[in-house]
């Protein structure tokens, strides 16, 4: 799933390639991708792109006062094309969901792998009209997101740290992968209650949050859209690395599985050497 660093890089890439260009066609291939109908998606055609912004994991392309907003969800991606194929795309069983064409012959495709269709596109006059956008918490890389503000967000938060970090209404932009990375950098268990943090632990988690995301953004800066997935994977220390040695201490990275996701962690770095209970795997082994 693209998270804050990848979406930030996509924003910069699209700003360089879209601003000042005219959109001539918006061609939906999968009707399910469109989440708004007034104004119609065709209203974006004939307009000149004036800005590209990021809100959490949302990408907002503004053209003459109208906003084309997309959320790539778990399996969506954006593919830039220096030259788009001739002729309109044909609906089918492939991953292509929507195509945007510029007057230059360039453009991009939005695709989604798998069967769960969660990729979303909105055409709105104001991004605040989008429910998911309106509920977003503060951006963790914003200048005014300091340690005091972070501590206030966690105060009284009875959830485990893993769930709290992934809650977009609490902090915008962090997902499954970077929450694992942040907790590993902070040397904290993903099951630790957010409200139980001491001031020193809060400071450590805040610093891990900012540094992990900042470093990921810096690694992704300037990369073409097609290289961002590989860059994300290469920079991860624990997420997606179950069974491999921790790059910090050498212990074996462990995994806890859930119904639709999994987390990875290092027992030595994060849980005092004790493996966390993985109830799903325990049931499978019985």
Which characteristics define this entry?
disordered C terminus; 9 helices; single chain; 286 residues; four-stranded antiparallel beta sheet; alpha+beta; elongated
Strand content: 15-25%
Oligomer: single chain
Which percent bin holds the helix content? Answer: 25-40%
Strands, total number: 10
- In DSSP terms (H or I, runs of 4 or more residues), the helix count works out at 9
Summarize the structure in words:
The protein has about 290 residues and is α+β, with helices and mostly antiparallel strands. About 30% of the residues lie in helices and about 20% in strands. The protein has helices at about 5-20, 130-135, 145-155, 160-165, 175-185, 200-220, 230-235, 265-270, 280-285, and strands at about 25-30, 50-55, 60-65, 65-70, 75-80, 95-100, 105-110, 120-125, 255, 260-265. It has a four-stranded antiparallel beta sheet, with no helix packed on it. A four-stranded antiparallel beta sheet has the order 2-3-4-8, covered by helices on one side. Strands 9-10 form a two-stranded antiparallel ribbon. The longest helix is centred in the last third of the chain and has 22 residues, at about 200-220.
């Amino acid at each position: 799933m693209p998270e804050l660093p990848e979406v930030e890089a996509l924003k910069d890439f699209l700003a360089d390639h879209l601003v000042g260009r005219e959109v001539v066609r918006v061609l939906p291939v999968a009707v399910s991708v469109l989440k708004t109908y007034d104004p119609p998606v065709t209203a974006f055609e004939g307009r000149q792109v004036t800005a590209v912004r990021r809100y959490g994991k949302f990408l907002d392309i503004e053209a003459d006062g109208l906003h084309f907003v997309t959320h790539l969800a778990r399996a969506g991606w954006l593919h830039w094309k220096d030259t788009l194929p001739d002729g309109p795309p044909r609906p089918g069983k492939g991953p292509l969901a929507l195509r945007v064409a510029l007057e230059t012959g360039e453009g991009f495709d939005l695709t989604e792998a798998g069967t769960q269709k969660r990729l979303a596109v909105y055409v709105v006059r104001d991004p605040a009209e989008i429910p998911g956008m309106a509920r977003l918490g503060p951006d963790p890389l914003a200048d005014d997101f300091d340690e005091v503000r972070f501590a206030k967000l966690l105060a009284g938060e009875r959830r485990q740290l893993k769930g709290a970090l992934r809650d977009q209404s609490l902090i915008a932009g962090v997902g499954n992968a970077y929450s694992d990375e942040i907790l590993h950098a902070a040397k904290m268990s993903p099951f630790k209650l957010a409200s139980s943090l001491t001031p020193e632990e809060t400071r450590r988690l805040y610093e891990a949050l900012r540094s992990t995301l900042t470093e990921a953004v810096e690694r992704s800066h300037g990369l073409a859209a097609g290289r961002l997935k590989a860059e994300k994977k290469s920079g991860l220390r624990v997420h997606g690395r179950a069974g491999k040695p921790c790059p910090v201490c050498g212990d074996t990275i462990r995994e806890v599985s859930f119904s639709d996701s999994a987390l990875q962690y290092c027992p030595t770095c994060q849980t005092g050497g004790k493996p966390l209970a993985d109830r799903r795997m325990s049931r499978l082994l019985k």
